[in-house]
Design a protein that fits this description.
By secondary structure, the chain is an all-alpha fold. It contains 15 helices and two strands.
Length: 414
């Protein structure tokens, strides 16, 4: 138990020594330093420090961006289940979901500030909005939802042992808790539209038959599939992070029934998503693509992005975790529950990679070559910086804030 920062630690909760925590934080800090060096090169010398070109206007940054936004959806969906649907048992994990969502969304925006090349002009998108672009709606909703996540995060910050002694902050945090259902509803609304528009953007690309989809009225099927995939896999990622926290800390932080409930809900949504995703893929392969002059196998005739990706995304990262999560005995097994969470997180990441990179790699004209893309170290460094950033924010929150309400009770029972 640390003595240097003991007055700041949550009351009744044990933490590692200050020096052990300092070493832990130094590891994450080194990752951030590597990312900052990469960001310096990109901002100083331009996007020629990357391997993006006229073929690949989007690269690994957008893959990571879309992936963390999907995985961070555990915040909005868990909040929806807790405050709107009334699943009160999820209050034991909602704080962790909000922190993870805040990290994912703020990290994505930080990375995008490098991607646009001139972050000091980032406000142009708001002042000179392109009202015909889905990305405008995405930009507005993501930044607004980050504000919602910040508001949801504030009460937990003010419950820090020292801050809670300030009467104004104590009452402010309490009042925010009382109206949190409003922010949960707003967050659900904003998340639905920006998750959907990220997918819808690809579904309306007439010049890219690999991504193009038919749909309902003005919305391509990818609009709805992106929303459903995020809602299904976001809670899986939340469970995965909390499980890692338990293993690293050696403590029981969340009752098993919470994991079981989230696993059941995620499994049901993932199963629905896979049925619709497979149906969409078959219709695209057998009807939509042939109408546009390309057969299914032409997309995989060469290059590293072969048919194995379909098996990896839909089979290993989709159908398999859905089956595991739908089996009650499997959900009660820590091994199978976490394995399914890992596979589901992998599946949604693979889905975003396919739409971002493979859509651009596959030629649309018979005389065009198959393009390939390999990120530079600067791109990898900036992408990895999100991991370091997330590790620092989450570690600080766990150490100094009462993130898990049942931690003391579960520790006593143990």
């Amino acid at each position: 138990m640390s003595t240097l920062d003991a007055p700041l630690l949550p009351e009744g909760r044990k933490r590692c020594s200050f020096w052990a925590f300092g070493f832990w934080m130094s590891v994450w800090s080194l990752i951030i330093v590597w990312g900052l060096i990469g960001a310096y090169f990109v901002l100083r010398y331009g996007l020629n420090q990357t391997n993006m070109d006229d073929y690949f206007a989007f690269g690994v940054w957008i893959v990571v961006d879309l992936a963390v936004i999907a995985l961070g959806a555990g915040a909005f969906f868990t909040g929806f289940l807790t405050y709107i649907i009334g699943k009160k048992e999820l209050k034991d994990i909602i704080n962790a979901a909000v922190i993870i969502g805040f990290i994912c969304y703020s990290g994505a925006i930080l990375m995008l500030s490098v991607d646009i090349g001139q972050p000091i002009r980032g406000w142009f998108g708001f002042w000179h909005a392109n009202v015909h672009s889905m990305l405008t709606e995405v930009m507005f909703c993501i930044t607004t939802y980050l504000s919602v996540l910040t508001i949801e995060f504030l009460p937990l910050i003010f419950e820090n042992r020292k801050l809670d002694e300030v009467p104004f902050l104590h009452h402010f945090a309490h009042n925010l808790h009382e109206i949190m259902f409003i922010f949960a509803g707003v967050g659900t609304f904003l998340s639905f539209f920006h998750q959907g528009s990220l997918g819808g953007m690809y579904g309306v690309l007439y010049a890219r038959p690999f991504a193009f989809r038919t749909g309902f009225l003005i919305w391509p099927w990818t609009f709805f599939l992106f929303v459903l995939s995020a809602a299904a896999t976001g809670p899986c990622f939340t469970m995965l992070v909390v499980w890692i926290t338990q293993k690293v800390s050696g403590k029981k932080l969340v009752p098993p029934n919470v994991f079981n409930l989230l696993g059941k809900i995620s499994g049901s949504l993932l199963a629905i998503y896979m049925v619709l995703k497979i149906a969409d893929t078959l219709y695209w392969a057998l009807v939509t693509s042939p109408k546009m002059g390309l057969t299914f196998w032409e997309y995989y005739r060469e290059g590293p992005y072969g048919f194995w990706m379909v098996i990896a995304e839909l089979g290993i990262g989709g159908v398999l975790p859905a089956i595991i999560l739908l089996i009650p005995k499997a959900r009660q097994s820590e091994f199978w529950l976490i394995s399914a969470s890992i596979l589901a997180s992998f599946g949604v990441t693979m889905n975003r990679f396919v739409f971002v990179v493979v859509s651009l790699a596959i030629p649309v004209l018979p005389f065009e070559p198959f393009a390939s893309y390999l990120p530079t170290w600067q791109e990898w460094a900036i992408s990895a910086a999100i991991l370091g950033y997330g590790g620092i924010i989450y570690s600080l929150a766990y150490r100094y804030l009462p993130v898990f309400p049942k931690e003391v009770q579960l520790y006593a029972e143990k």
